[in-house]
Amino acid sequence: MAKQDIKDLDWNNLGFEYRDLPYRYTEDYKDGKWQGGELTTDSTITLSEGAEELHYGQEVFEGMKAYRTKDGGINLFRPDMNAKRLNNSAKRLVMPSYPEDKYVDAVKQVVKANQDFVPPYGSGGSLYIRPFMIGTEPVVGVKPSSTYTFRIYATPVGAYIKGLQPMPYVVSDYDRAAHAGTGQAKTAGNYAASLLAGTQAHEAGYAGELYLDPREHKYIDEFSGANFYGIGKDGKFYTPKSESILPSITKKSILTIAKDLDLDPQETHIDINDLDQFTEAGAMGTAAVISPVGSLTYKGNKHVFYSETKPGPVTQKLYDTLYGIQEGDVEDKYGWVVKVDL
Ligand SMILES: *Cc1c(COP(=O)(O)O)cnc(C)c1O
């Protein structure tokens, strides 16, 4: 695959796709320790055909963004939380941890080395950063790998869903993760498990699918790559409490923002039959930022929230506050923003 030529990029129409940028970071693990990392221009990985990751899915990943600020600087958002979560995911998949300060430093190196590819302020785009770790040992019997590769690539992306356009979603009959399974880990297998449901949802004209709790199929869990929230008729912010959902850093941040906005945030079970208790609903995640859910179809019945064409006022406010902090336009009272030294 050819390297991305910066002259070929239309900053206002980037979409959400992989582009081969000049630099990525890579570090191998063997003999019980990390061997030292470096930037490389090689966007390929050479693996044994027997590599653990290819057969038994020993992989964990992260998703982050770098945002261009008005003064031309570059912001990261809570990268320490991503470092911690990568290690929590790694623990679940019996993989080594990666030192948190080294993780943040490596992310900064990748952003700095590819800084020309961070979309301009105001374009709605950002540099998506994908740290990941894979088990590389050739194995036939099922056991954890003894060798690993940690890698970080980056690619410029546009708004995942443009502007704050409400989208139609459908409640899936499938599960993405089992109860007591790997739902709390950011790992490839959960996404592999979601591909059929996602494909069917898209073929039926939906933007994506919402999963219910895998034990009873009664409570809302999350979307395939974003957590769910609803704004209650009582004015409160609600988001599911579940052991099979990924602990979203966007969600965690929105819970804090919602408190500041007097929305009395609640993490609780949300019964799929109680949709009429909500005036607004949305999806939260690094890729999705905050995306209004226009409608949710459950067992053939379509439930419309605020509107199918425009975002509700609370969704708009949450988005403006979060994105404003990330881009450096709203005061960062909690110290969430980490600047990249250029
Ligand atoms: C990454 C991810 C999210 C969003 O997490 P953020 O930290 O907000 O980006 C939500 N659900 C799933 C399944 C994910 O993989």
Describe the protein's architecture and organization.
- The chain folds into 2 domains: 6-159, D-amino Acid Aminotransferase, Chain A, domain 1; 163-327, D-amino Acid Aminotransferase, Chain A, domain 2.
- Strand 15 (278-285) and strand 16 (289-298) form a beta hairpin.
- The longest helix has 16 residues, at 188-203.
- The protein starts with 23 loop residues before the first strand and ends with a strand.
- Strands 1, 2, 3, 4, 5, 6, 7, 8 and 18 form a 9-stranded antiparallel sheet that branches. Strands 9, 10, 11, 12, 13, 14, 15, 16 and 17 form a 9-stranded mixed sheet that branches.
- The protein is 22% helix and 28% strand.
- The model has no long low-confidence stretch (mean pLDDT 96).
- By secondary structure, the chain is of the alpha+beta class.
- The protein is built from 6 helices and 18 strands.
Low-confidence residue ranges:
none
Shape: globular
Write down the CATH class of the largest domain: Alpha Beta
Please state roughly what percent of the residues sit in beta strands, choosing from under 5%, 5-15%, 15-25%, 25-35%, 35-45% or over 45%: 25-35%
In whole angstroms, the N-to-C terminal distance is 28 Å
Tell me, rounded to a whole number, the average pLDDT.
96
Structural class: alpha+beta
CATH superfamily of the largest domain: D-amino Acid Aminotransferase, subunit A, domain 2
Helix-strand string:
EEEHEEEHHEEEHEEEEHEEEEHE
What molecules are bound to this protein? pyridoxal-5'-phosphate
| Portion of residues within helices | 10-25%
Q: What is the number of domains?
A: 2
Cα-atom radius of gyration: 20 Å
The CATH topology of the largest domain is given as D-amino Acid Aminotransferase, Chain A, domain 2
Largest sheet: 9 strands, antiparallel
